[in-house]
Automatic annotation (TrEMBL), chain A:
GO terms for molecular function: protein-lysine N-methyltransferase activity. Residues 279-324, 344-362 have a biased composition (Acidic residues). This is SET domain-containing protein. One of its GO terms (cellular component) is nucleus. It comes from Babjeviella inositovora NRRL Y-12698. Residues 273-325, 343-362 are annotated as: Disordered.
TrEMBL record, chain B:
The keyword Zinc-finger applies. Cotranslationally removes the N-terminal methionine from nascent proteins. The N-terminal methionine is often cleaved when the second residue in the primary sequence is small and uncharged (Met-Ala-, Cys, Gly, Pro, Ser, Thr, or Val). Belongs to the peptidase M24A family. Methionine aminopeptidase type 1 subfamily. Its main location: cytoplasm. It holds the Pfam family zf-C6H2. GO terms for biological process: negative regulation of gene expression; protein processing. This is Methionine aminopeptidase.
Length: 605, 376
């Protein structure tokens, strides 16, 4: 969760750097820990003035691109999450001098109980051992080597640029003068920073990639409404991702065909001139690039953006569409003058109404806010209200439909009774296949035809079903399809409710069917294949038995001498320390799911 | 033997292509001036800018081209503009000279890369800066009550081409002249026109020269006549601005965060009762007229980048006696203060060195202008 203190300073920062709707919401401690955002009045997304809760310009978000050392990142080809981590650490090192100080200062690196909020990979061996055989283990989240790699690269970068900017504390590793213990402490601090960042980062667009969005990360997570139907989430993060990768602008000249540019570049004379000065071939124009903001010494947005001013005039008809003209007469000129006058009038009318709105603000606003008011939504990140809330409600965002293992990895928390949770049977399935050499053909069939086709079919059925019930279908419905595991080996699983997933059951069915039946299935014509595959979902005692075997095997693999789900539930309820809660919570949900599976499968026998 | 006539080019500043079209401007033709549009499209898209060189319809010597515009101060545009000045063939032109679009600049735009010049390039740009300083000084020496800003433009243009340079402003995004002349309440980007300077005015000359493949960019504000030097408020504004720039330059060295320059400038401006313009910023200048880094002059900005030896950029604070807010004249260039109160600007071009800064645009003992004491 967004663990945030020093909320007053943060609110002040938000008020100065974004449109943060203090009339509708406030920050205070959340019952789930840390700080949350709460509705100050009943909120209704149908009311236009209540929709926009936060608007922060992209230039005010904390990203590698916006960093004070963005040029050093460019020179060292650093971007993505690594760039964001470094951008954050260097801004943090500037203390109050950073324009993001109040935001950075509000971030906690420790749990309420004082323990460092660290990625699971950095937990003690004892803690990690308790998670053996859980999803966290299966997904390799216990492994910290990737993080260590990022740390090493970060330290290398810091040393490489040390003559330009001082090395921040977290990266100040010295193998000669510092002890291993001191260096380990640096790494632990680094790891806590990384956890703080990964738990808050949002995907922005192809220019900024990912970034910290002050304000947006304060909305705690709830499972998506689509999961449990009770509308747990209230707000969504909205950010126009379509922009130029070179400059981050929506409309710019960088998307124009490069060919055009290349042609123009060839005769721009720069190369020759550079040679004249430098005597070197390589010092041509390619080496001298630079960014030009909308606010450079010459241009404002309008000028750089408006092609019609510079180009062939999109608004005006091209010569071919105009009456042929062999001579410009005074009459032509009068006509054109009239049109230009009319254009100005039209423009006045348009901007005039805007101005009225601006004038109606009867209070003084800062120049920063005034700029945000005039900005286009595409230049900003928004938090918008999607579902109604009552006064006093905590306002939740959803970070997506994620199982606890991934929630722990990214955000450091789990959700009790998480409907998206599951327990993988991959290890058990693969072991089974290895032992049964007779099923090899069937595995091949599953891998090449069966798995994808059946998945496709199940999803289409589900879509049909959903639409029948819901009636409404937004344009986006095609995109909301739940992705399935691309690799069939990773799919076998027991869902949170104790049932095997459809394809897990189908795979078991495929394994146990008589040889003759399989031969027939394998020979089915492509057109009839989907229907033939659907039969794998039909009731078959042997299939249930096989899944049950896998479940029992999985259950026996936890190195905890068979502590039950109920016992873990009790431990979970008692656990106060956050790490203990994560560990017991994970085990409780896995054990309960497997126990439910055993019951369910046994009932089918 | 008959001389080959010079090829005729389309008179649209957005086009500049050779043409055999017959679409003459009939108004120019009346004065025996031949201006040809290559197509109807060029005629239609460039007309608004083209007609600025036409004489007043009523036969008057000069006229206000925007009679219905609510100017924020006393200054008015005084047209006609003179025709675009020619560039001798032997002078190397930047890529935008014909059509106005600095394609190489746009292409290399906004990559977060801040160019670092090699020793050879530094030697080159130093020469360019020296030429630009000479040009600025020549024009500044001509400032006196009665001279028009267009005459100053002619001086800048001539001084530049005499030194084999191209006056960078000319046709950059279709700017019509070779220098920016910003008088009194004009913040920047004033277009040289037929207005004679008056005793008591202040004027900023913003000169940029393209020479040896580099742009060199610098500007200063000058007092016109003795009246201005005796005006306590005006002197405070001009000298405060000059000091703002000097204070900012003093902080330049490797490791400087560009966003910190604004703190120094705004603090000094505020202390002297002035405000800092936010819309226009300093910039990298090298093979490109404008590139990274951006240098906002106001406090609490989030400009990106950190200084390294070999970077060349400008600091050019625009400081106002009243509101920092700017508006733009209908010519789409001239930036004026919203309240009509005066504004001053100074610009230097700086090279980050190993241990500090070299002012490439530095004045010399013969340079006109310079600081004067405040009036108590």
């Amino acid at each position: 969760m967004a663990s945030t203190h020093k909320t007053k300073a943060l609110e002040k920062w938000l008020t100065a750097n974004s449109l943060w709707n203090t009339e509708l919401m406030e920050l205070r401690p959340s019952p789930i820990g840390g700080i949350g955002v709460f509705a100050k009045q009943d909120l209704d997304p149908e009311l236009e003035e209540q929709v926009l809760l936060l608007r922060i310009p992209k230039r005010n978000i904390l990203s590698a691109r916006n960093s004070c050392i963005a040029n050093l990142f460019y020179e060292n080809s650093i971007g993505g999450i690594h760039g964001l981590i470094l951008a954050f650490i260097y801004e943090k090192a500037l203390g109050e001098k950073s324009p993001w100080f109040d935001y950075i200062d509000s971030i906690m690196y420790r749990n309420d109980d004082g323990s460092l909020l660290q990625p699971v990979g950095c937990w003690s061996k004892t803690d990690k051992a308790l998670l053996a055989n859980t999803q966290i283990d299966m997904l390799n989240i216990l492994d910290s080597s990737e993080l260590e790699q990022v740390f090493t690269e970060s330290v290398t970068f810091a040393k490489a640029v040390a003559d330009t900017i001082a090395i921040p504390r977290e990266l100040n590793v010295n193998t000669t003068s510092s002890t291993e213990e001191e260096n380990r402490a640096r790494f632990n601090e680094f790891a806590a920073v990384v956890q703080a960042i990964t738990s808050r980062a949002f995907e922005i667009d192809s220019y900024h990639e990912i970034a910290l969005v002050p304000g947006a990360c304060l909305f705690n997570h709830a499972s998506p409404s689509s999961d449990n139907g009770d509308g747990a989430e209230h707000v969504h993060f909205v950010c126009d991702a379509g922009c130029c990768t070179k400059c981050g602008e929506q409309e710019c000249d960088h998307d124009e065909s490069d060919e055009d540019f290349d042609v123009e570049m060839e005769d721009d004379g720069f190369e020759d001139i550079s040679k004249e000065v430098s005597g070197q071939e390589d010092d041509g124009v390619e080496d001298v690039s630079g960014e030009e903001d909308s606010e450079d010494g010459w241009e404002s947005d309008e000028e750089l953006g408006s092609d019609e001013e510079l180009g062939s005039g999109e608004e005006l008809e091209s010569d071919e569409e105009l009456e042929p003209m062999t001579e410009i007469t005074l009459e032509h000129i009068t006509k054109l003058e009239e049109k230009l006058k009319q254009d100005i009038e039209d423009e006045k009318e348009e901007t005039g109404s805007d101005r009225e709105e601006e004038d109606s603000l009867d209070y003084e606003i800062s120049p920063e806010l005034e700029e945000i008011f005039s900005m286009d939504a595409s230049e900003c990140c928004d938090i918008v209200l999607e579902f109604p809330a009552l006064a006093g409600d905590e306002l939740y965002n959803t970070y997506g439909s994620l199982p606890n293992s991934l929630l722990v990895q990214r955000y450091g928390f789990i959700i009790d009774n998480n409907p998206a949770d599951y327990v993988s049977l991959s290890v058990q399935v693969l072991k089974y296949i290895k032992k049964q050499s007779a099923v090899r053909k069937r595995v091949k069939f599953w891998e090449t035809i069966g798995y994808d086709l059946l998945n496709e079919m199940i999803r289409q059925e589900k879509k049909k079903h959903d639409h029948e019930h819901d009636g409404t279908c937004d344009d986006g419905c095609g995109e909301e399809e739940e992705p399935y595991e691309e690799e069939w080996e990773l799919e076998p699983r027991i869902l949170a409710n104790g049932e095997p997933s459809d394809t897990t059951y189908a795979l078991a069915h495929l394994m146990v069917m008589p040889e003759a039946k399989f031969a027939k299935l394998a020979k089915t014509k492509p057109a009839n294949m989907p229907l033939a595959l659907a039969k794998l979902l039909s009731k078959e005692v042997k299939a249930y038995q096989l899944v049950l075997d896998w479940v029992k095997e999985k259950y026996a693999k936890y190195p905890d001498n068979g502590i039950t789900g109920a016992q873990y539930t009790a431990l979970y309820e008692q656990a106060k320390e956050s790490r203990k809660r994560v560990i017991t919570g994970i085990l409780k949900s896995e054990k309960l799911a497997l126990e439910a599976a055993e019951q369910y499968l046994t009932s089918k026998l | 033997m008959a001389k080959t006539p010079a090829p005729i080019v389309c008179c649209s500043p957005k086009c500049g292509k050779e043409t055999d079209s017959t679409l003459k401007c009939p108004i120019c033709a009346k004065d025996d001036v031949s201006n040809i549009f290559c197509s109807q499209t060029c005629f239609r898209t460039a007309w608004d800018e083209h007609k600025a060189i036409h004489k007043a319809e009523n036969g008057a010597d000069s006229y206000d081209p925007f009679p219905n515009y609510e100017y924020s101060g006393k200054l008015r545009a005084v047209y006609p503009l003179t025709a675009r000045r020619a560039i001798p063939k032997h002078i190397k032109r930047p890529d935008y000279a014909d059509h106005g679009k600095p394609l190489s600049e746009i292409k290399n735009d906004r990559t977060n890369k801040i160019p670092v010049l090699t020793a050879k390039e530094i030697a080159g740009i130093r020469k360019t800066a020296k030429v630009a300083r000479e040009v600025l000084d020549v024009a500044a020496a001509a400032i006196k009550p009665g001279i028009t800003t267009d005459e100053l433009d002619a001086i800048v243009h001539k001084a530049t081409i005499n030194r084999n340079g191209y006056p960078s402003p000319l046709n950059y995004y279709n700017f019509p002249k070779s220098v920016c002349t910003s008088v009194n309440e004009i913040i920047c980007h004033g277009i040289p026109d037929a207005r004679p300077l008056e005793d008591g005015d202040i004027i900023n000359l913003d000169v940029t020269v393209f020479y040896l493949g580099f742009h060199a960019d610098m500007n200063e504000t000058y007092y016109v006549g003795d009246k201005a030097k005796a005006n306590q408020e005006v002197v405070n504004l001009v000298e405060t601005t000059r000091e703002c720039l000097d204070l900012a330059i003093a902080t330049v060295k490797p490791g400087l965060l560009f966003r910190n320059l604004g703190e120094v400038i705004e603090e000094h401006a505020t202390k002297n009762g002035c405000s800092v313009v936010r819309t226009y910023v300093g910039h990298g200048v090298n093979q490109f007229f404008h590139c990274q880094p951006n240098i906002p002059h106001y406090a609490k900005n989030k400009a990106i980048g950190i200084a390294k030896p070999g970077m060349v950029f400008t600091i050019e604070p625009m400081v106002c006696a009243g509101s920092y807010r700017d508006i733009r004249w209908p010519d789409n260039w001239t930036a004026a203060t919203v309240d009509g109160l005066w504004s001053a600007q100074f610009e230097h071009m700086l090279l980050v060195t190993e241990d500090g800064v070299e002012v490439l645009s530095a004045r010399n003992e013969k340079s006109p202008g310079g600081a004067i004491p405040r009036i108590a």
